[in-house]
Design goal:
CATH architecture of the largest domain in chain B: 3-Layer(aba) Sandwich
CATH architecture of chain A: Orthogonal Bundle
CATH class of the largest domain in chain B: Alpha Beta
Strand order of the largest sheet of chain B: 6-7-8-3-9-10
Order of helices and strands of chain A: HHHHHHHHHHH
Radius of gyration of chain A: 24 Å
Distance between the termini of chain B: 34 Å
Helix content of chain B: 10-25%
Structural class of chain A: mainly alpha
Number of strands of chain B: 20
CATH superfamily of chain A: MetI-like
CATH topology of the largest domain in chain B: Rossmann fold
Oligomer: heterodimer
Helix content of chain A: over 70%
Number of helices of chain A: 11
Strand content of chain A: under 5%
Radius of gyration of chain B: 25 Å
Shape of chain A: globular
CATH superfamily of the largest domain in chain B: P-loop containing nucleotide triphosphate hydrolases
Distance between the termini of chain A: 51 Å
CATH class of chain A: Mainly Alpha
Chain lengths: 274, 365
C-alpha cells in the first residue's frame, strides 16, 4: 500500500480535472440553458422563483414579423447553401482534374473571400448592384452576396475530401460505358457526398445567421438576425429568448436524428474506403 | 499473329507528354483469340498505349481500330472494351453484385439479362455467396476476381489488363496467372495484358511485345522472345543472363569469334559486325553447364569451354545458382538442378556451353 500522501495526490488531481471539466461545460452551456429556461418564464428579467408560461412563444407565432423573418432567413440559407455547394463542387473538380499552371492563383481566387470582412462584402455588393447594375436590394442579391463567402468555405471542405479521391475511379466508370454526367452521379458523388453535404450545411448556417451581408442587400426586408438585432435597441424581449430556444431545439433534433440513423445503420455518414 | 479475324489494330500510334515521347509510332494487330502481353520496364509507354486503346488518352497521331471500327476519336464509353485495373478500382459504395453488373446497367441491359449474366460471372470467377459484400470486406484476390468479372460481364470485344496482379502476394499471383489464361482460352476474347514482370508475361501470353522508350523492341511468340531475343535489351530484360563484354576477333559464316578478357569464345552472330568492335554477349544462366574437372568431355568443336572454380552455390528450391570464378578473373552464373551435380563450393570445374547458345550484339555505350 502506498502512503496516504501519494493516494491523496492522485485523487486530488482527478478531482481538479473533474471540476475544471465541469466549469468548462458550465461556461459553454449555461447561457444556452438559461435562455431556454428564461423563454418559458413570465418574468425574463429575474426568472426566479420559476413561474412558467408559453406567452413568449405565443407572441412569436402571433407576430407576423418573426414568421416573415424566419422564412426569409430560410430562403437565404437554402438558396445560398445550394448555390455555394454547386459552384464549389464544380470549381474543385475542375481545378483537380485539369492541371493548369494557374492552379495556385485560381485556388487563391476561390479562397480570398475568407479574408474579406463580411461588412465589406455587404457594402461592396450593395454598391455594385445599386450603382453599376442599377438593381435595388432584394432577396436574390442577398443570396448571391452570401454565396461569396459560402463558396470559399464550401471550396475548402470539398477540396479536403476530393484531394484524396482517386480519379481513376472515373476512368473505370467511363470504360464501362458511363458518360461523364452518369459517372458523376454513379461514382463520384456517392463517394464524396459527406463533404458536399457538409459544405451545404456550413454555407446554409453562415447565410442563415448572417447579419451584415444580408442587411445591406435587403434593407427593410426582415431576417432573423436583423430582427433580433433591431429589437435589441428596445431591450431583450422574451420573443428573442423563444426564437433562440427554438433554434437550439431544431439543431439538437437534427443531430439527434443523425445519431439515431447512424446507430441503426440506416444511413452511413462517411466514406467506405477500400 | 493469332488465327482468325483481327480484333484490334493500331497504326502509327504516337503520344507525347511535353518533351517525352511516351508512345512512338506503334503498329500492332491482335487476333480474335489471342493473349498478348505488353512487357516493359516502368516508363516504357506500355500503360499509355493501353490507355490509348481504352480511349482514356487521345493519341497525337495514328488510328485505333477495334472490331473493324475506327474508334480513334471515340470516347471510352462508346468502345465496348473491358478493363481490369492494377488497384482494382472497384466502386467502394457498391456491393459485389452492383459492381459486376455496372457495365450492363450502363448499356441499359434488361433486368433478366443482368441477373443471368451475373450468375454466369459469379460462377466463372467462383464468387458465389459474396454478392452482397462491399469491396472493403473482400480479400485482395477476391477483389481482383470481382474486377475481372466486371471486365468480362458485357462480352467486350477486347479485355485490357493493366498490371492486375501487381498488388497480390506471390502465391495468389501464380494461381491467378493460370486462371486468367484459362478464362482467355475459354471465352475466346483477346486479352491485352500490361506487365513489367517477365514471368507473368511468359506464363500467360501467346505473344509478347517487349516495349522500351515508346517502341516495340520485339514482338513475337513467347518462346521466341525468350530464346531468340531480337535486341540486347530484350535479351537482358527477359530471363536471367550473364553479360560478357568483349571484342570481335573475326566474323564468318554466321559465327563470331570474340575475345573476352583473354579467352576466346565462339558465339552466334546476330548482326554484321567488324573486327575490333565492342560486343556484349549474353547467355542465359541455365545454358551454362559445369562439370567436375577430368570428366569425359563432349565434342570439342561445338562447345565453348572455360576453366574455373565454383565459389558458391545459391540454393533456390527447384534450381540452384552456381557462382563460378573463371580463371580470367571474371564471374559467371550457371543455374541447374542440384541433383545433377556432385560438385561442391571450392571445386575446380569446367564451364561450358554450346557455341550456338546465347546472343551477341554490338555494345552501345
Amino acid at each position: 500500500m502506498t502512503t496516504y500522501g501519494a493516494v491523496s495526490g492522485v485523487e486530488y488531481r482527478k478531482w481538479l480535472m473533474a471540476v475544471a471539466l465541469g466549469l468548462l461545460y458550465i461556461f459553454l452551456y449555461a447561457p444556452i440553458a438559461y435562455v431556454i429556461y428564461a423563454s418559458f418564464s413570465e418574468d425574463i428579467v429575474w426568472p426566479f422563483p420559476p413561474s412558467l408560461t408559453l406567452q413568449a412563444y405565443a407572441n412569436v407565432f402571433n407576430d407576423s414579423l418573426y414568421g416573415d423573418a424566419l422564412i426569409n432567413s430560410l430562403k437565404i440559407g437554402v438558396g445560398s447553401g445550394v448555390l455555394s455547394t454547386l459552384i464549389a463542387t464544380a470549381a474543385v473538380i475542375g481545378l483537380l482534374r485539369y492541371p493548369s499552371r494557374y492552379r495556385t492563383a485560381l485556388f487563391i481566387v476561390f479562397l480570398s473571400p475568407l479574408f474579406v470582412a463580411e461588412l465589406l462584402i455587404g457594402i461592396s455588393s450593395l454598391a455594385f448592384n445599386a450603382r453599376i447594375l442599377g438593381l435595388s436590394g432584394n432577396i436574390f442579391s442577398a443570396i448571391a452576396a452570401n454565396a461569396v463567402e459560402g463558396v470559399a468555405f464550401s471550396f475548402l471542405i470539398i477540396l479536403s475530401q476530393l484531394v484524396r479521391y482517386d480519379w481513376q475511379m472515373d476512368d473505370a466508370a467511363m470504360v464501362f460505358g458511363a458518360k461523364p454526367l452518369r459517372c458523376f452521379w454513379e461514382v463520384t458523388l456517392p463517394t464524396i457526398w459527406p463533404s458536399v453535404f457538409g459544405a451545404f450545411l456550413i454555407s446554409f448556417i453562415l447565410a442563415f445567421n448572417n447579419l451584415e451581408i444580408s442587411f445591406y442587400n435587403l434593407g427593410a426586408i426582415p431576417t432573423l438576425p436583423s430582427v433580433a438585432w433591431g429589437s435589441l435597441r428596445f431591450g431583450l424581449g422574451p420573443e428573442l429568448f423563444a426564437i433562440a430556444a427554438m433554434t437550439n431545439a431544431l439543431v439538437f433534433t437534427i443531430f439527434a436524428l443523425m445519431y439515431v440513423l447512424m446507430r441503426t445503420g440506416i444511413v452511413k455518414f462517411g466514406y467506405r474506403g477500400t | 499473329m493469332g488465327e482468325g479475324p483481327v480484333s484490334l489494330s493500331l497504326r502509327g500510334i504516337s503520344k507525347r507528354f511535353g518533351q517525352v515521347k511516351a508512345v512512338d509510332g506503334i503498329d500492332l494487330s491482335v487476333g480474335q483469340d489471342e493473349f498478348l502481353s505488353l512487357l516493359g520496364p516502368s516508363g516504357s509507354g506500355k500503360t499509355t498505349l493501353l490507355r490509348i486503346i481504352a480511349g482514356l488518352e487521345l493519341p497525337d497521331r495514328g488510328t485505333v481500330v477495334v472490331g473493324g471500327q475506327d474508334v480513334t476519336r471515340q470516347p471510352p464509353y462508346r468502345r465496348k472494351i473491358g478493363m481490369v485495373f492494377q488497384n482494382f478500382l472497384l466502386f467502394p459504395h457498391k456491393t459485389v453484385a452492383e459492381n459486376i453488373i455496372f457495365p450492363l446497367r450502363m448499356q441499359r441491359a434488361s433486368r433478366e439479362e443482368c441477373v443471368e449474366r451475373l450468375g454466369w460471372a459469379l460462377n466463372l470467377l467462383k464468387l458465389k455467396g459474396l454478392e452482397a459484400r462491399y469491396p472493403n470486406q473482400l480479400s485482395g484476390g477476391q477483389q481482383q476476381r470481382v474486377s475481372l468479372a466486371r471486365g468480362l460481364i458485357s462480352r467486350p470485344t477486347l479485355l485490357l489488363l493493366d498490371e492486375p496482379l501487381a498488388n497480390l502476394d506471390r502465391e495468389l499471383r501464380a494461381e491467378m496467372e493460370v486462371e486468367i489464361r484459362r478464362y482467355q482460352k475459354e471465352l475466346r476474347i483477346p486479352f491485352i495484358y500490361v506487365t513489367h514482370n517477365q514471368e507473368e508475361a511468359l506464363t500467360m501470353s501467346d505473344r509478347i511485345a517487349v516495349m522500351r522508350n515508346g517502341v516495340f523492341e520485339q514482338i513475337a511468340p513467347r518462346v521466341e522472345v525468350y530464346q531468340k531475343p531480337a535486341t540486347a535489351f530484350v535479351a537482358s530484360f527477359v530471363g536471367q543472363s550473364n553479360h560478357l563484354l568483349g571484342k570481335v576477333m573475326q566474323c564468318a559464316a554466321g559465327q563470331l569469334v570474340i575475345d573476352w578478357k583473354g579467352r576466346e569464345l565462339t558465339v552466334p552472330c546476330n548482326e554484321t559486325l567488324g573486327a575490333g568492335e565492342a560486343v556484349r554477349f549474353m547467355i542465359k544462366h541455365e545454358d551454362v553447364q559445369l562439370r567436375a574437372m577430368g570428366r569425359a568431355s563432349r565434342d570439342q568443336a561445338a562447345f565453348n569451354r572455360l576453366k574455373g572454380k565454383l565459389r558458391d552455390i545459391i540454393f533456390k528450391g527447384q534450381t540452384a545458382n552456381f557462382i563460378l570464378e573463371i580463371d580470367n578473373g571474371c564471374e559467371l552464373i550457371a543455374s541447374g538442378s542440384l541433383r545433377d551435380t556432385d560438385v561442391r563450393a571450392g571445386d575446380s570445374v569446367l564451364v561450358e556451353w554450346p557455341q550456338t547458345a546465347g546472343v551477341c550484339f554490338r555494345d552501345k555505350p
